[in-house]
Specification:
heterodimer; A: 792 residues; mainly beta; Immunoglobulin-like; Maltoporin, Chain A; 22-stranded antiparallel barrel; 58% strand; globular; B: 289 residues; 13-stranded mixed β-sheet; 3-stranded antiparallel β-sheet; 3 helices; TonB-dependent Receptor Plug Domain (chain A)
């Protein structure tokens, strides 16, 4: 903490200035809805300018003089203004939507030249509006599936909302909804994401060059912001689809006779109705299967400089078969944020956040019915101060406080069954992470963005920690090449608040941009990240069975170093842009399972998990066409992701489950006329690693497979084409039809290939034949869907 | 409580299959499997059975072959096999087709160690023989068909689990004079269980096997085996792998199920299969309407 304070104080004194300067500041909003504009550009010259923050605020301090300022935001008409800066100036603008460019899409929501000029790299921003124009594949607009079309991002499985970034696993993605951590971002076991696109404004994905403002995950940060609601008038939207229907209401608060309310609200809900059709099939009569979610956002202007935001999310999945099984899971989050413009140059915000993920399984086998509950809960406090020192120089500092409560499992009998009740010990942790982040313009060509995050993670009581013979839960037996479980010889008791184990780590982050000319830049970045939570999962995609385990005496924090370089270029006056990036990642203490790991109902998870190292490297290309009737992008990724864990694959490197050598995606949107839009995307990915059996033998009357090594084989290549057509309403009319066709040429992509003994049916029982077979399992054929949207 | 994982996955898999337009294609002819060196396979163990004692104890030895080959596993006919309880040693002699046998009688609470000499290498493995509690009631009962299970007469039993002892159970069904087993996703919860959640409890009305039904007039024989924790772990893996329907979301990368028989000469040249010592509680009943 001392180091942190002295850094801040040092910086405050460092920046005394000689010349007479004044500050231009203000807010930019959308003229129609009053929503604040994030990432809008304020340009005062070829190399002088700034962008608005998440709340539409900008601030730039310049020498006294006369300037021509342009305010621009994608999809809006640009405002140009001559200003005389001889005093501090406040300029607020409402930018009017530009109808001509409305249907153009750009992957980055800011103008293409910003991609060249910004110090950010490995970052993609997509507007929810763009996502809605893309084919859905499965009939639901899905943010997480849209980001899978970006280079370096791949899907864990066909149709899955789970994603891997630069060879990392799904638990290495930090998914934030209005700053609240979402622990399971999938509905219906991964087929749909929990984010209702109607309620979302912007999505920003950091694959690398992660600023020190974020921490806690190794591979990526997905920062999702909800819409704030219409400040000017009451509006509603309805969407009816084959999978679900949704509704959204928004409007001003305390408007009175003014043009704008003092605040606004937005409330959105969505519910699936597959189960509504279930009674039609006799087999599914007793089945329950649905999800719903609700999004809430409110904001209120206390005065010109102070604003309050309230944001909430509630999602639930329920899946049950009468007398057999039941499963409920969901995320709940709430964020209360206060932003305050302390001065023209100082912007303060603080958020108090609640986030909870819980799930429950009920097994209703007669005689041994029981329920199993588990949850992870956290509270955050995130104060942050941003100081707009001078043009190109910004300092951000803050602290993230987090309190965690893990409830790994609680078993309770149902219907007085013979199952005995049991509750695993709860686990507690706190994390304190102060950070500093600087953006500095060294020269007209060179800009730096660097920072430092200090993360302190403490496992605290009350908890009893098992002690093991030899001091560790597992000992590697090199003769047999396997792990021996050591006997638990006792317990150490920690009282509430006692520190069980404390980790302190420094996480330096830096990125650099060098402008070669007006249209070309070179960038380089480095970041070190630590991750203190581990997702102990027995499948590759996110499922409700996932268990989050905190670092502690027997589970070390994971860490990574990532190095990346890139070239960014715009062509033909920003009509096209192009980028190429190369990265290398070095990962430590990645968790993997011992052979034959038993994860469920396992209190001492450390006896089932081993930690090893990994490395990932790759090359990513992206080409965007930004204007015209046809817009879209092409992306290609060449990558490798490997692990090395003692006891696995003869202690040699093996491809990680997410290793995909080639991935290509082509996405296009074509505006045919005022009424028809067409969208399409084609994805090709080379096969992911699998382990095929080599030998076979018999045991207890069953044929058993024998394996050599891990992930030594590859699934066949994956490819599919999705198309969509949107029929927009006639002028002055309402109602939009969206037709979508997923997997147009009905490709049967292999989800897995599995090997088994062939069986034959005899007297209603499948009897083994002694013969073996290989079988390919594929999820989805062609999926047609229709959605109708209505706005009022 | 490993059993729950599989049941859950089975259900998830089934429902997802119904939900989505999923499909399965036979690709046996499109797949080429890498050739590997044959490994020694141990199949069998010692069984103490008071109800119907075995005349001889026997173990079968073979070697592994390519997974997609449709040939039988080649028998190992030239090995030297012996089993010891620490004081006494029994030599198991080759009877033909890879079977090695001896008329010894295993007893409770002993740990039996097998030693196999083959191809100039020595393999060794051990398993303790744990008592299986008796059936206090053994009968059949008719159950209607449900989504997951066929209808018919099922074996049911009552049994008292001994308190304060970790017990592991394995259930076998004898039908038409033969052990009956099918590769099924339910096996790892259907055929084995630990007493983790019913330690010391009286268990009544437990269905011995939820897949195998009997007709009125048939002789239904069921066995409750007392097994070691290691054997339970082995069987859990075995049933998980052989019952794997592969489908949903990808499973953890499979690995060879580790044998309890170790190659002392060249540890990396591993054997597969489990040498077990079990106690068998057996019940039989003729199904009545």
């Amino acid at each position: 903490m001392k180091l942190y304070i002295s850094l801040v104080v040092g910086l405050l004194f460092m920046t005394s200035q000689a010349q007479e300067t004044f500050t231009l500041s203000g807010y930019l909003k959308d003229a129609m809805s009053g929503e604040s504009l994030w990432g809008a550009n304020i340009i005062l010259g070829p190399t002088t300018g700034t962008v608005t923050n998440e709340y539409g605020f900008y601030s730039i301090t310049l020498e006294k003089g006369t300037y021509t300022v342009t305010f621009s935001s994608l999809g809006h008409k640009t405002i140009t203004k001559e200003i005389v800066l001889d005093q501090n100036l406040k300029l607020n603008f409402d930018l009017v939507e530009d109808v001509n460019t409305m249907d153009e899409i750009v992957v980055t929501s800011t103008k293409a030249n910003r991609a060249v000029k910004s110090t950010e790299m490995s970052v993609s921003t997509i507007k929810a509006e763009t996502i809605k124009k893309l084919p859905t594949g499965m009939g639901e607009v899905d943010i997480l599936k849209s980001i899978q079309l970006l280079p370096g991002v791949s899907s864990v499985n066909e149709g899955s909302s789970g994603f891997n970034v630069r060879g990392g696993s799904t638990d290495q993605n930090l998914v934030l909804l209005d700053e609240a951590t979402i622990y399971n971002a999938s509905h219906l076991l991964g087929f749909f994401s929990v984010f209702n696109a109607d309620a979302i404004k912007d999505v920003k994905l950091y694959k690398g060059g992660i600023p020190s403002l974020y921490g806690g995950r190794l591979s990526s940060v997905l920062d999702i912001r909800q819409r704030e609601g219409n400040l000017k008038e009451f509006k509603g939207e309805l969407g009816i689809g084959l999978i679900s229907s949704r509704a959204l209401l928004q409007g001003p608060i305390n408007k009175g006779d003014n043009e704008e309310g003092k605040g606004s609200y937005l409330i959105a809900g969505r519910r699936s109705y597959i189960d509504v059709f279930a009674p039609l099939s006799e087999d599914l009569e007793d089945t329950k299967l649905y999800f719903y979610d609700m999004n809430l956002k409110m904001n209120y202007n206390l005065n010109d400089t102070n604003r309050l935001y309230l944001s909430g999310y509630l999602g639930k999945d329920r899946f049950a078969i009468e007398d057999v099984f039941g499963n409920t899971y969901g995320n709940t989050s709430a964020t209360l944020r206060w932003t305050s413009q302390l001065s023209d140059k100082l912007f303060f915000q603080t958020s108090a956040i609640y986030s909870d993920y819980d799930y429950e399984v009920e097994l209703l086998t007669s005689g041994s019915e029981f329920s199993w509950k588990s949850s992870i809960l956290n509270y955050n406090l995130k104060p942050r101060l941003r100081w707009y020192v001078s043009p190109g120089n910004t300092l951000t500092s803050g602290v993230d406080f987090t309190y965690y409560n893990f409830n790994p499992g609680e078993i309770a009998p149902i219907n007085n069954s013979s199952t005995t009740a049991e509750k695993f010990q709860e686990k507690f942790a706190i994390e304190i992470a102060p950070y500093l982040d600087f953006e500095t313009k060294i020269s007209d060509n060179l800009s730096l963005h660097y920072g430092l995050r200090w993360s302190n993670f403490q496992r605290i009581g009350k908890e009893n920690i098992a002690t093991y013979a030899n001091g560790t839960p597992l000992t590697y037996n090199s003769t047999l090449d396997l792990f021996d479980e050591n006997e638990a010889i006792g317990e150490t008791s920690y009282e509430s608040g006692d520190v069980i184990e404390s980790f302190n780590n420094l996480e330096p982050r830096a990125s650099l941009r060098y402008l070669l000319n007006e249209t070309t830049s070179l960038k380089a970045s480095y970041n070190r990240n630590y991750q203190y939570l581990h997702l102990i999962s027995n499948t590759t995609s996110a499922t409700p069975l996932d268990i989050w385990a905190p670092s502690g005496p027997y589970l070390k924090p994971q860490s990574s170093d990532q190095y990346a370089v890139g070239l960014f270029k715009t062509l033909k006056n920003n009509d096209y842009d192009f980028s190429v990036e190369a990265y290398y990642k070095d990962l430590r203490n990645i968790t993997d399972f011992v052979d034959g790991a038993d994860l469920l109902f396992q209190e001492n998870i450390e006896t089932q998990v081993v930690q090893g190292n990994g490395r990932a490297y790759g090359l990513e290309l992206q080409f965007n066409k930004n204007v015209g009737k046809l817009t879209g992008w092409l992306s290609y990724t060449l990558a490798r992701s490997e692990r090395k864990v003692i006891g696995i694959n003869n202690n040699e490197y093996y491809p990680s489950n997410n290793d995909q050598t080639h991935e290509l995606s082509l996405t296009g949107i074509y505006k045919f006329n005022n009424r028809w839009d067409f969208g399409g995307n084609f994805v090709y990915g080379s096969g992911k690693p699998v382990t095929y059996p080599t030998g076979k033998f018999e045991q207890n009357g069953l044929l058993v497979a024998d394996y050599d090594g891990r992930n030594g084989d590859r699934l066949p290549a994956f490819h599919r084409l999705d198309l969509s057509a949107t029929l927009n309403p006639k002028e002055g009319k309402n109602g939009t039809w969206i037709f979508s066709l997923g997997n147009v040429y009905n490709r049967k992509n292999a989800s897995t290939i599995f090997f088994r003994e062939r069986t034959e049916e005899m007297n209603n029982i499948d009897v083994p034949t002694g013969q073996t077979e290989a079988s390919k399992f594929s999820f989805l054929g062609i999926v047609p869907s229709i959605t109708y949207e209505f706005k009022f | 409580m490993k059993t729950i994982t599989k049941q859950y996955k089975l259900i998830v898999f089934l429902c997802i299959s119904i939900l989505t337009i999923s499909c399965e294609t036979d690709v046996t002819d499109d797949i080429t499997i890498a050739e590997s060196t044959p490994k020694l396979v141990i199949n069998g163990g010692l069984e103490r059975n008071i109800t119907s004692p075995l005349a001889t104890q026997q173990i079968r030895l073979t070697t592994t072959i390519n997974f997609l080959s449709n040939e039988p596993n080649p028998p190992v006919t030239d090995a030297t096999v012996s089993i010891t309880d620490g004081t006494e040693t029994w030599v198991f002699s080759h009877q033909g087709d890879g079977y090695y046998a001896n008329a010894m009688m295993p007893v409770l609470d002993k740990t039996y160690t097998i030693t196999i000499e083959w191809n100039g290498e020595t393999y060794e493995g051990a398993d303790p023989l744990n008592e299986a509690p008796t059936f206090t009631n053994f009968y059949t009962e008719f159950e209607e068909e449900t989504i997951f299970f066929t209808g018919g007469y099922f074996i049911k039993f009552d049994s008292q689990d001994p308190a304060d002892i970790e017990n592991y159970y394995y259930y076998r069904v004898v039908k038409d004079g033969e052990y009956f087993i099918i590769p099924d996703a339910g096996n790892s919860f259907n055929l084995i269980t630990s007493d983790k959640f019913f330690d010391g409890q009286m268990r009544s009305g437990v269905t011995l096997n939820r897949e195998i039904t009997f007709e009125p007039g048939e002789l239904a024989t069921g066995q409750q085996l007392g097994i070691s924790e290691e054997y339970f772990d082995y069987l859990f893996e075995l049933f998980t792998q052989t019952g794997s329907s592969g489908g949903f979301g990808g499973n953890p990368p499979p690995a060879t199920i580790r044998s309890n028989v170790i190659n002392l000469t060249t540890p990396s040249n591993r054997a597969v299969g489990y040498f077990y010592s079990v106690d068998v509680e057996e019940g039989s009943v003729v199904v009545e309407e």
